[in-house]
Specification:
The complex is a heterodimer of chains A (about 290) and B (about 400). Chain A is an alpha/beta fold and about 290 residues long. Chain A has 15 helices and nine strands. In chain A, strand 6 (about 150-155) and strand 7 (about 160) form a beta hairpin. Chain A starts with a helix and ends with a helix. Classes of the chains: A alpha/beta (about 290), B alpha/beta (about 400).
C-alpha cells in the first residue's frame, strides 16, 4: 500500500488523514518502526489507530497507560487463584511435585496482557499504546525492550517470540517529557488541529445527514473558537458532537436560529470558567464572522 | 566519525549512488550541529526511505524524512528550514551552522547582551561551568555534608543582602548545596520507609509455597513504591528582588542539580525556563543560554502575567500530582492583582502544595498587604520567610512531610 492508498482506505473508514500523517503511516510499514503521535487532546490520535486497524482489517489491541502501570498489567500475569486451586486439587493425587509445577506454569494459567497479546496474534494487529506519557519512566524501559525485539521472556515458561510484528502506535499528550531513547526508537508526527477544509471533510464523513454548508460553517466557527483564549480548546471530537446535535435539532445554517444554537454550545465549551468567558456577545460576533 | 559513518553506510546495499550517500552523511552532520540527535540507524533508514521514493521530488523526501529524523515538535518545526537550506540552498543565511561550530569567538560577537550581564549572573555562569567538575569529585561531597562549622553558624543568620565578598559567597554556595543534599536525603528516606504493604504479593508467595507442597506459609506483602516529590521553582528576578535574586538563583541551581527531576523557571518582565541551561553540558552553550536569561534581568515585575503564562504553557507539563511549587518572590506586582489571583487559583488546582518564599517576611514589621501578595495568599499552602540560610533550612521538615 502506498501513501495515497493508505489515505483512501482510512477515509473509507471515516478517518480523514492529512498528507503528512499518511506519509508517517506509510513509513511505519516500510521501516517497521513504531509511530509516536503527539498533540493536544481531542485531535484524533486514538482514532488514527482505530481507523488504521479497520483499514487493514485487523484487531486493535489497546494498552491504556497510567501512573504505576507495570509488567503484570502490561505484559502477563499468572492466574494465581487458579494455580492455588489446582495445587490443592492435586494434593492427594500423589503426582510428582515437578509435574505439578510444570503444569501450573503452563499456557493455561497464563493471563495475557496487551503487549504479550499483541505479539501472539496470527495476523499483525495494530497495537495502540495510549497516553504513554502517563506511565512512569521505568515502564518506558520495558516498552523499549519489547518494541526492540518483539519478544517477551517469562522465567517460568520460556521466551515468547512474535508470531507477527504488530503495527505500533503510541500517543502522548505531552504531560511528561518522554525519554530520548523512546523518541529515537519511534517515528514522530505532531497531530495539529485540522484545517477548516479538512475538518469539513471530517464532519461530512462522520456525521450522517449533514449538509455541506453546515459542515463548512461549523468548521469555520470552531476554528475561530480555537483562537479564543479558552482553558479547554475544543478538539475534533467536540466539533463532531456539536455537529451531531445541530443536525439532530434540524438546524441547517448556524446563523439562522441563534437561541437554540447558543444553548447547544455546551458541546464545545466544557469548563465552567470558559462558559463564563464565552459570553453571548462573543458567540454572536463569531457567528457573524462565519456568516 | 564522519568517515566511519560513510564507510558503514556504503557497506549496506542500496540503489542510491555514492555521491548521494555522501550528501546524506553531510545532512546528518548538519542536523546534529543543529541539535537534532540522529544516529547511524536513522541514517540507514533515511537511505532506505529515499530508495523507495521518487528523488526528483524533494518535497516528498522532506515529508518522509521529517517523521523519521525529527523526534519532537520543536525539531519537526525546524526540520523543513534545515532541509531546504541543505538540499535546496534556500534561506541559507538564517539556517546556517550554530555558534558552537566556531568556538570561543562566536559567542562574544553574537551576544551583545553578554557584556552588561549582572554581577550575580556572572558568578552563576561560573558555577554552572564548574558543575560538571563537581560531579566528577565525589570526595567533595563529604566535605559539603559536614557543613555546620561556627563560621557557617553566623553566616546562616546573615541576611542575604549583606553577603557580598567572594569568600562568603563561596561558603554560601557550599551551605546551599548541603541543604539541597539534606533535602534529597529526606526525600529518599521516605521512599525506603515503605516496608509494610497492604497488599499480598501472590507471585512471591506462590514461589515460596512450592517447597511446602503448595501451602502458603510465608506471607509476602507489597505496596506501591513512594516517589520523592518534584520541586518546581519559579524565581522572581525583577528590580525589587535584585538583592536576593542572584542568591536564589544559586539556591535554585544547586537544588535542581541534586534533584534532576525538578524544574526551574525565572521571570522578570517575561518567563524563562532555566532547565535547558542546567542540562547543557557544553560550557560555551551554557553560557550563551545564561546570557539569554539576563535579558530583562532586574526589570519591572509582572508577576500575575508571568504566572499566567506559566499556567498556560508550562503548568500542564511541569505540575503533576507529585509536584511541589516554590515561588520565590516579594510579591510586588505592577500588574492587576486579580490576574495574579486567578493564576494562583489555577496553580493551586494543579500542584500538590504551593510554597511562597518571601524574603521581606524576614524583615521586622512587614505585612503582606501589597495588592498582589494579598491576592495570592489564599492559594498558598505555606508562606515562609527566605532572607537567610536559617530560614531556608527551616523548610526542610515541611518538604519531608508533604
Amino acid at each position: 500500500m502506498d501513501r495515497q492508498q493508505i489515505a483512501e482506505r482510512l477515509a473509507e473508514h471515516g478517518y480523514i488523514a492529512g498528507p503528512d500523517l499518511a506519509m508517517a503511516l506509510w513509513l511505519t510499514d516500510l521501516l517497521g518502526r513504531p509511530l509516536l503521535l503527539e498533540g493536544e487532546a481531542g485531535v484524533g490520535k486514538t482514532e488514527t489507530a482505530k481507523a488504521l486497524a479497520a483499514a487493514h482489517g485487523t484487531k486493535l489491541i489497546r494498552l491504556q497507560c497510567y501512573e504505576g502501570l507495570d509488567a503484570s498489567a502490561a505484559l502477563y500475569e499468572w492466574n494465581y487463584q487458579r494455580q492455588l486451586l489446582s495445587i490443592k486439587a492435586r494434593e492427594t493425587s500423589g503426582q510428582d511435585a515437578k509435574e505439578i509445577e510444570r503444569s501450573i506454569f503452563s499456557e493455561e494459567y497464563l493471563l495475557e496482557r496487551p503487549l504479550l497479546a499483541a505479539i501472539r496474534q496470527d495476523m499483525p494487529p495494530v497495537l495502540l499504546i495510549d497516553e504513554v506519557d502517563r506511565a512512569d519512566e521505568e515502564f518506558e524501559a520495558l516498552l523499549l525492550e519489547v518494541l526492540a525485539d518483539f519478544q517477551v521472556s517469562i522465567p517460568e515458561f520460556g521466551t515468547v517470540t512474535a508470531r507477527s510484528i504488530p503495527r505500533v502506535i503510541l500517543t502522548s499528550n505531552g504531560t511528561r517529557e518522554l525519554s530520548d531513547a523512546l523518541r529515537r526508537r519511534c517515528l514522530y508526527h505532531y497531530v495539529d488541529y485540522p484545517s477548516e477544509d479538512q475538518e469539513t471533510r471530517i464532519l461530512l464523513a462522520r456525521v450522517p445527514g449533514i449538509a455541506v454548508t453546515l459542515a463548512n460553517q461549523i468548521a469555520r466557527f470552531v476554528a475561530l473558537v480555537r483562537k479564543e483564549d479558552l482553558k479547554k480548546t475544543p478538539g475534533v471530537a467536540e466539533s463532531i458532537d456539536w455537529a451531531v446535535s445541530l443536525v439532530g435539532m434540524g438546524i441547517t445554517r448556524i446563523d439562522a436560529s441563534s437561541e437554540t444554537l447558543l444553548d447547544s454550545l455546551m458541546c464545545l465549551i466544557k469548563t465552567r470558567e470558559d462558559q463564563g468567558n464565552f459570553s453571548r456577545e462573543v458567540a454572536e460576533r463569531l457567528i457573524g464572522k462565519v456568516a | 566519525m564522519n568517515r566511519d559513518e560513510l564507510q558503514t553506510l556504503l557497506q549496506t546495499p542500496h540503489a542510491a549512488g555514492v555521491a548521494f550517500v555522501r550528501r546524506v552523511v553531510g545532512f546528518m552532520r548538519n542536523l546534529r550541529d543543529n541539535s537534532i540527535a540522529v544516529g547511524l540507524g536513522e541514517a540507514r533508514d533515511a537511505l532506505n526511505v529515499a530508495g523507495a521514493l521518487d528523488l526528483s521530488r524533494p518535497g516528498q523526501l522532506r515529508a518522509a524524512w521529517k517523521p523519521l529524523l525529527a523526534s519532537r515538535r520543536e525539531e519537526a518545526q525546524r526540520f523543513d528550514t534545515l532541509f531546504d537550506a541543505y538540499w535546496l540552498r534556500r534561506g541559507v543565511k538564517s539556517a546556517g551552522r550554530p555558534a558552537s561550530a566556531m568556538p570561543g569567538a562566536g559567542t562574544a560577537k553574537r551576544s551583545p547582551w553578554l557584556a552588561p550581564m549582572p554581577e550575580g549572573l556572572a558568578a552563576i555562569a561560573d558555577s554552572v561551568s564548574r558543575a560538571s567538575a563537581d560531579q566528577a569529585q565525589p570526595a567533595d561531597r563529604s566535605r559539603l555534608e559536614r557543613g555546620g562549622a561556627s563560621k557557617a553558624e553566623s553566616l546562616a543568620r546573615t541576611d542575604f543582602r549583606h553577603l557580598d565578598n567572594p569568600d562568603d559567597l563561596a561558603a554560601l554556595d557550599e551551605l546551599v548545596e548541603s541543604l539541597a543534599l539534606s533535602l534529597r536525603r529526606q526525600l529518599e528516606r521516605r521512599r525506603k520507609a515503605a516496608r509494610k504493604g497492604e497488599q499480598l504479593d501472590l507471585r512471591r508467595m506462590l514461589h515460596a509455597s512450592i517447597p511446602h507442597g503448595g501451602e502458603p506459609i510465608e506471607i509476602y506483602r507489597k505496596r506501591a513504591r513512594r516517589r520523592p516529590l518534584r520541586p518546581v521553582l519559579v524565581l522572581d528576578a525583577s528590580g525589587s528582588m535584585s538583592q536576593y535574586s542572584a542568591i536564589f538563583l544559586r539556591f535554585m541551581l544547586a537544588l535542581l542539580k541534586r534533584l534532576p527531576e525538578g524544574e526551574g523557571y525565572l521571570f522578570h518582565t517575561r518567563l524563562v525556563e532555566i532547565g535547558p541551561v542546567l542540562r547543557e553540558r557544553r560550557r560555551v552553550k551554557a553560557l550563551e543560554r545564561l546570557s539569554l536569561l539576563a535579558e530583562g534581568w532586574g526589570g519591572g515585575t509582572r508577576i500575575g502575567e508571568c504566572l499566567a503564562t506559566f499556567v498556560k504553557h508550562h503548568a500542564h507539563r511541569a505540575l503533576r500530582g507529585r509536584s511541589i511549587l516554590f515561588i520565590l518572590s516579594d510579591g510586588y506586582d505592577t500588574g492587576e492583582p486579580a490576574v495574579l489571583g486567578k493564576a494562583m487559583q489555577a496553580l493551586a488546582k494543579r500542584a500538590r502544595r504551593i510554597i511562597w518564599l518571601n524574603p521581606l517576611l524576614g524583615w521586622q514589621g512587614y505585612q503582606p498587604v501589597a495588592g498582589g501578595m494579598a491576592a495570592a495568599l489564599p492559594h498558598v499552602d505555606l508562606f515562609a520567610p527566605a532572607h537567610n540560610l536559617q530560614s531556608l533550612a527551616a523548610l526542610a521538615p515541611h518538604l519531608a512531610r508533604a
